[in-house]
Amino acid sequence: MNGDGVPNSTQVVVHTGPGGGSDVFARQVTKLMQTDGVISDAWPVRNQTEGSSIGAMSYLKSRKGKVDTIAAVTPTWLVTPLTLQGSAVSITDLQPIAALLVEPEVIAVRADSGYNTIKDFIADAKSKPDQLVQVGGSITATDSLTGKALQAKTGAQWKYLSFSDSAQRIGALLRNDAQMMIGASTDFVDQVKLGAIKVLATVDDRPVATFPKLTSMKAQGLDVGPLPEEFRGFVGPPDMPKEAVDYYQGVFEKLVHAPGWDDFVDENGSVTNFLGPDEFGPFLEKQNESLKVLVDSIGLGQE
């Protein structure tokens, strides 16, 4: 760090490949910070794609005490270790820095599918077990967990097709290789405008700005209980010096008050939810406990 307590350089680790959700988010955020003058130098993104966040967590853990590396974190960083017996890494090993936002998720199908509500899809899936397909991210991603929770609650069964980025998932849905997708509202806006895709429901009760008239699964009579929120934030390596934590917290706090932030959030259908390290740490602990219950209940727990 220089004499002002600022790291000489910063790299941002993500667990997805180029074009994946965390990769896109990290690049958008760092570009916005430069554009709005929050940072002066570029923060390169490092893709550590091994093991659905295990590789990224392991790399960050290996940077113990360093000030030049942070990582963009999502619920996948909590879930993956919960599914692996004897995992050498977990979210509790890392230094919370800041949560920035949550991304409300929606359920989408092809416009010509004949489904008008989530119950329509569930009924069809129950009538043809394991014939329908949900497309999404990794098996430990939020969309996958939500789909598994729906199956556990309703008794329906369907297959899961995994792709690393949303464009591939949308393509599978449009080709009818998959019949349902759960994702951020912005994944679907363009195709909804074109009349190729329609959205059936929001996953939770949080309003979605891009589809203001869309009702939730619960409002449509399907209550599957607590589900994980797709939050996005940043963590650092173990034993990161307090001066570095304070610096990064300050940078991200400036970001959520920067001129371009509100437009960025609105364009991505997200909701600002800033938490500093003293709040983000307990938030992660609570999310970890809730996700363990969910993971165990749908049969993904450690064996």
TrEMBL record:
Give one Pfam family.
TctC
Task: Please give the coiled-coil regions recorded for this protein.
Answer: none
Q: What is this protein called?
A: Tripartite tricarboxylate transporter substrate binding protein
This protein's species is Mycolicibacterium goodii
Q: Which Gene3D superfamilies match?
A: Bordetella uptake gene, domain 1, Periplasmic binding protein-like II
Q: Which InterPro entries match?
A: BUG, Bug_dom1
Family per record = Belongs to the UPF0065 (bug) family.
